[in-house]
Amino acid sequence: MKHVYSGAALLIVFLLVSCGQLAKGASKGSTQEAVVQFPVFAVSTTQAVRGQIRDYLSLSGDIVSGTTVDAYSDVAGRVIKLYVTVGQRVQKDDPIAEVDPSRPGMNFVPGVVKAPIAGTVVALPVQLGMTISQTVPVARFSGAGSLEARTYVAERFISKMRVGLAVELSLDAYPGRTFYGRVRELSPTVDPVSRTMEVRISLQNENALLKPGMFAKIKIVTEEKSGIVKIPAAAIVRRYGEQYVFTVETDPKDPAFTVAKKQTVLPGILIDDQVEIRQGLDAGAQVVLRGQSLLEDGVRVRVVDTTPPLKAAY
User: Fold this and answer.
1) Distance from the CA of 116 to the CA of which of 52, 154, 206, 246 falls in 20 to 30 A?
2) Residue pair 222/199 in contact by the 8 Å Cβ criterion
């Protein structure tokens, strides 16, 4: 049936309905009743459903360490041993490095630098053989489970932001998998150059799959509604300042046929080609999805294709 729509597919299908018959045996000059043509329009329909709809901002950002702690040596001297590498996970008080404070003619016991917290090594500013003081960090750690995502929201969307909003993230490293988080902090200032505000997002990092430095596609859910009527946005006709849809109903004058019924609607949230209908349409109604541009209220229609309804949860 889908081939009906190719090219000028949704054209009028004419159904000839005879309103009378030619008089049998009538003379040459006798009159005959006219044959009336009722246009029947081929349409595709879908069903209005009651469910959930969410509005969100689509952004991008980076996975970063939420908190970092530096480890320092208690003595100045030369680094003679490193026990860890970047990316390695450690426990509190695990040895990180040894620093030898010996001087010419004076030998001392090397000092051991220990991890101040349990976490992941994200940087090693020192190298073997380097001479350091007590003010030079030996290693930098990210606290366990303290990863966060950072992104930037354009000034025109700032009014939609608030702490606690739900967030969904997808990463190229894990195709088809969704990670979750919540807005943790909003910057108190707007960058005067980019006109953006920094947003920090706490993450659920199950199985430690997320790593600092990863790039993420971020959805911040700014509004969520349940129990609303929704349809595909393509079903709505906008003409002369009106917004309406056509539903398919049985012709009250002739139950053998179906007709298009014009329904003025009040749309709400529009996201990903799904639109909330605040007024004018009930769940379960059969809505014309394709072919509605040719319709008028009350014309006869023939349903040649049916599209599955939207998912209730979104």
Assistant:
1) 206
2) no
